[in-house]
């Protein structure tokens, strides 16, 4: 018999590992999701991630055990894999593929977030200081207690201070986030404080209490610079 779970119980279990239940939606057949468990299609998708640096100290206790260029991804697989097994769910990740699943599209569909010139979605509470780490797939159609909203915070931001804060000029409404320009500036200016933080992201007026700690931000920047595009 399948576990009769609630969103609250799932959220509590995720929080023990510093992860958050960010959103959920009921998929359509066109989403082409794998079965939640063998022989049982996915009827509810839960988007899971981190906000702020709550996850960071939990990850830091264990990440050196992963001899990998992507220890955070491997840690995520271990943690979310165990949770999925415990709740008898499936799990997919944004960093594994093909197929690569459209996490940003799923999040926009669930509602309450919006696209931004920063290349990341922005949340009304967490601002740009959150990320999707995976999605749990349930074979049950679980009632979603939070109604999806149509608009996210970027739609209401008139000043858009992020547009003028990047010294590399890598953020604009026309182009969005110019990754090559950002990487070129970082390699050209190794002493820049951008090596440890993103001025454009810091300029966002949303989610200031959830800004990443300096070591957390530095970790992501180092991985970004080392990544092949």
Please specify the SSE layout and strand pairing.
Elements: H1 7-15, E1 20-25, E2 44-51, H2 55-60, H3 71-86, E3 90-92, H4 103-110, E4 130-138, E5 171-172, E6 176-177, H5 179-188, H6 199-203, H7 214-226
Describe the structure.
With 229 residues, the protein is α+β, with helices and mostly antiparallel strands. It contains 7 helices and 6 strands. The protein has helices at 7-15, 55-60, 71-86, 103-110, 179-188, 199-203, 214-226, and strands at 20-25, 44-51, 90-92, 130-138, 171-172, 176-177. The strands form 2 sheets. A 4-stranded antiparallel sheet has the order 1-2-4-3, sandwiched between helices. It has a two-stranded antiparallel ribbon with strand order 5-6. The protein starts with 6 loop residues before the first helix and ends with a helix. The model has no long low-confidence stretch (mean pLDDT 89).
Keywords for this entry:
229 residues, alpha+beta, four-stranded antiparallel β-sheet, two-stranded antiparallel ribbon, 13% strand, globular
The pLDDT mean sits at 89
Q: Helix content range of the residues, please? A: 25-40%
Rg, rounded, reads 18 Å
Largest sheet: 4 strands, antiparallel
SSE class = alpha+beta
Question: How many helix segments?
Answer: 7
Order of helices and strands: HEEHHEHEEEHHH
Strand content: 5-15%
Strand arrangement within the widest β-sheet reads 1-2-4-3
Query: How many DSSP-defined strands?
Result: 6
List unreliable stretches of 5+ residues.
none
The shape is globular
Terminal residue distance = 45 Å
């Amino acid at each position: 018999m399948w576990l009769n779970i609630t969103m609250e119980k799932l959220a509590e279990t995720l929080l023990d590992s510093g992860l958050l239940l960010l959103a959920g939606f009921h998929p359509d057949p066109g989403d082409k999701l794998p079965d939640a468990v063998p022989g049982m299609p996915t009827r509810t998708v839960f988007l899971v991630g981190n906000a702020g640096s709550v996850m960071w100290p939990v990850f830091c206790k264990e990440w050196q055990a992963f001899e990998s260029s992507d220890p955070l991804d491997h840690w995520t697989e271990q943690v979310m894999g165990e949770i999925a097994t415990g709740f008898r769910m499936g799990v997919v990740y944004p960093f594994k593929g093909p197929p690569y699943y459209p996490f940003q599209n799923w999040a926009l569909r669930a509602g309450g977030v919006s696209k931004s010139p920063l290349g990341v979605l922005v949340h009304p509470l967490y601002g740009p200081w959150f990320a999707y780490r995976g999605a749990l797939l349930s074979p049950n159609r679980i009632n979603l207690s939070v109604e999806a909203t149509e608009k996210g915070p970027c739609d209401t931001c008139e000043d858009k201070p992020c547009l003028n804060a990047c010294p590399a000029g890598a953020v604009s409404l026309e182009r969005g986030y110019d990754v090559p320009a950002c990487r070129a500036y970082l390699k050209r200016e190794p002493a820049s404080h951008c090596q440890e933080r993103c001025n454009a992201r810091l300029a966002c007026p949303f989610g200031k209490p959830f800004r990443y700690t300096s070591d957390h931000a530095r970790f992501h920047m180092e991985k970004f610079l080392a990544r092949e595009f």
